[in-house]
């Protein structure tokens, strides 16, 4: 009996008892690589081409689902075989059913036993622990990589009934909320089983260590495992030192970070390497301390959770949901600063100050906490490291006629995506609220492809979806006007110092010259080149 699993835009996947037949519709213009008629491609054709380029691999989830199904069937057979021997408990044996099945898979696939056991474990999860999420992968909604993250995030849920509920809830919300990410899965798990999220962080905390691994001749990698907060503060201290060099320092940003970290650990001097008489580096202690003062880790937590009345998880910028207990531990740090976010103040500021360009501190914090990251799908730049963008552009000449400074019209965008929206032609974004108070963002590319996603942390701040706006922009699902691409500011668009091709050419030239110098040094030192 044939079973047609997926059919969309000329593509289909048909599965029968003996084969998987994949037919991928190829839009007009994708088979000719000459590009001779690229300018004549219509907007509709461009949307089809972009959708094909971005989503033609959706069949991979279905193939992976069937691979998991095959291994799971073999696992169940091995399970039944070993359970048939009543004299020995199949699950106390060193070579239990999962171990034996993994050994067979690893041998056939040519991978290590550990990789084989991971694969079998994911197959079992796909059919026993989170089958609803597995079907999302099968149907092309979820990539195999994101399914693996879902397996990891639900691994510690040990209540069967609760796991079944979380599986259904995650599948329902991921299918509709858009912008799939590990943080979104983790937030759902933490919302319903805080202990599952708590344990993962406790396990990480217990594995604090410092390790050094050789990478190449004369170069090693040092890895320091510590708390997320200490890591963020340490990186801020490294950046505060590394950012003090002048624009002519020849090192890359990562090389400067490495040298700065080494200098901090060894308590040695970090200097600019420009070798110019007019160097304007800012490496005085007072200048470094001023930059370090801006290093902050933002955590948003409900007051009732901070008081111990509730166990609702908190949200840490750049990390995701953390347990209420973890949040309470952070509050007790000597460097912690507590600022109360009064949602009534947020609502009042949205009502009274919608005509101002800059939001109040309360509105700024609420918007960043609500979305968590850059609102462009696929970008996970933390909200507090992003810009706040007016979705409908603010009209400086007539504020009453432009986009209001309100929760309904503000969201975080990283500096890159903010620049793309502002300066590149054709990008359109919108922010809407449905009848249930769910806040959505939409981004439409110049090719006509629209991606919708739900505000990630509405579970933490549900009140923000029910603000009754009374300014010029509708807060409803159907009437909220999208930002218009012609309202960009092209005259202020940043320019490249070099074209992308020129930059690549310069990089290759520099690397080739560096390789020649290394060869010449080795020849002088050892009498023969190293390669």
The gist of it:
This protein has 531 residues and is α+β, with helices and mostly antiparallel strands. Helices cover 44% and strands 12% of the residues.
Number of strands: 13
What is the oligomeric state here? single chain
Q: In angstroms, what is the radius of gyration?
A: 27 Å
Largest sheet: 3 strands, antiparallel
Uncertain runs with pLDDT below 50, 5 residues or more? 472-488
Number of helices: 18
Quickly give the structural class.
alpha+beta
The percentage of residues in β strands lies in: 5-15%
Distance between the termini: 61 Å
Please estimate the helix content. 40-55%
User: Strand order of the main beta sheet, please?
Assistant: 1-2-3
User: On the 0-100 scale, what is the average pLDDT?
Assistant: 79
Q: Shape from CA axes?
A: globular
Topology:
Elements: E1 3-8, E2 11-15, E3 20-23, H1 43-55, H2 59-83, H3 97-109, H4 113-129, H5 131-138, H6 144-153, H7 160-177, H8 182-192, H9 194-206, E4 209-216, E5 219-225, H10 228-242, H11 253-266, H12 285-292, E6 299-300, H13 303-306, E7 314-316, E8 320-322, H14 324-331, H15 343-352, H16 361-371, E9 387-390, E10 410-413, H17 415-423, E11 428-433, E12 439-444, E13 450-454, H18 500-526
Antiparallel strand pairs: 1-2, 2-3, 4-5, 6-7, 7-8, 9-10, 11-12, 12-13
Helix pairs in contact: 2-3, 2-4, 2-5, 3-4, 4-5, 5-7, 6-8, 7-8, 8-9, 10-11, 10-12
């Amino acid at each position: 009996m044939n079973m047609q699993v997926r059919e969309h835009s000329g593509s289909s996947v048909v599965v029968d008892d003996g084969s998987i037949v994949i037919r991928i519709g190829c839009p007009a213009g994708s088979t000719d690589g000459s590009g001779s008629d690229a300018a004549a491609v219509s907007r509709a054709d461009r949307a089809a081409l972009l959708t094909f380029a971005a989503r033609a691999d959706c069949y991979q989830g279905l193939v992976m689902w069937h691979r998991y199904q095959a291994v799971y069937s073999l696992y169940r057979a091995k399970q039944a075989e070993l359970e048939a021997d009543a004299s020995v408990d199949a699950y106390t044996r060193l070579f239990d059913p999962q171990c034996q099945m993994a050994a067979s898979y690893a041998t056939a696939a040519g991978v290590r036993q550990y990789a084989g056991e991971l694969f079998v474990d994911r197959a079992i999860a796909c059919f026993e622990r989170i089958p609803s999420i597995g079907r999302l992968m099968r149907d092309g909604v979820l990539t195999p990589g994101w399914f693996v993250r879902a397996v990891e995030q639900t691994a510690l849920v040990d209540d069967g009934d609760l796991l079944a509920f979380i599986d259904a809830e995650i599948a329902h919300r991921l299918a509709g909320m858009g912008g799939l990410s590990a943080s979104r899965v983790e937030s759902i798990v933490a919302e319903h089983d805080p202990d599952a999220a708590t344990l993962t962080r406790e396990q990480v905390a217990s594995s604090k260590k410092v390790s050094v691994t050789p990478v190449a001749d004369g170069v090693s990698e040092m890895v320091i495992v510590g708390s997320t907060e200490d890591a963020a503060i340490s990186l801020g201290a490294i950046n505060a030192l590394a950012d003090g060099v002048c624009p002519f320092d020849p090192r890359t940003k990562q090389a400067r970070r490495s040298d700065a970290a080494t200098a901090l650990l060894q308590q040695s001097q970090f200097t600019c390497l420009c070798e110019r008489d007019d160097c304007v580096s800012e490496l005085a202690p007072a200048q470094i301390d001023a930059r370090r003062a801006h290093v902050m880790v933002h955590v948003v937590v409900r007051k009732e959770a901070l008081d111990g009345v509730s166990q609702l998880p908190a949200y840490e910028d750049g990390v995701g949901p953390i347990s209420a207990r973890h949040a309470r531990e952070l509050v007790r740090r000597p460097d912690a600063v507590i600022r109360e976010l009064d949602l009534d103040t947020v609502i009042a500021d949205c009502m009274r100050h919608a005509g101002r360009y800059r939001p109040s501190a309360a509105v700024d914090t609420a918007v960043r906490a609500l979305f968590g990251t850059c609102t462009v799908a696929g970008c996970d730049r933390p909200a507090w490291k992003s810009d706040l963008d007016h979705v409908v552009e603010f009209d400086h000449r007539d504020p009453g006629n432009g986009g209001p400074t309100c929760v309904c019209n503000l969201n975080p965008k990283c500096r890159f995506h903010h620049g793309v929206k502002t300066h590149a032609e054709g990008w359109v974004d919108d922010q809407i609220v449905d009848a249930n108070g769910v806040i959505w963002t939409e981004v439409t590319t110049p090719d006509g492809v629209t991606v919708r996603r739900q505000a990630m942390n509405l579970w933490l701040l549900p009140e923000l979806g029910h603000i009754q706006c009374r300014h010029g922009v509708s807060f409803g699902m159907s009437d909220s006007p999208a930002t218009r691409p012609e309202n960009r500011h092209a005259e202020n668009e940043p320019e490249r110092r070099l074209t992308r091709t020129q930059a690549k050419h310069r990089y290759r030239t520099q690397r080739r010259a560096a390789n020649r110098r290394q060869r010449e040094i080795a020849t002088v030192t050892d009498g023969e080149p190293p390669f």
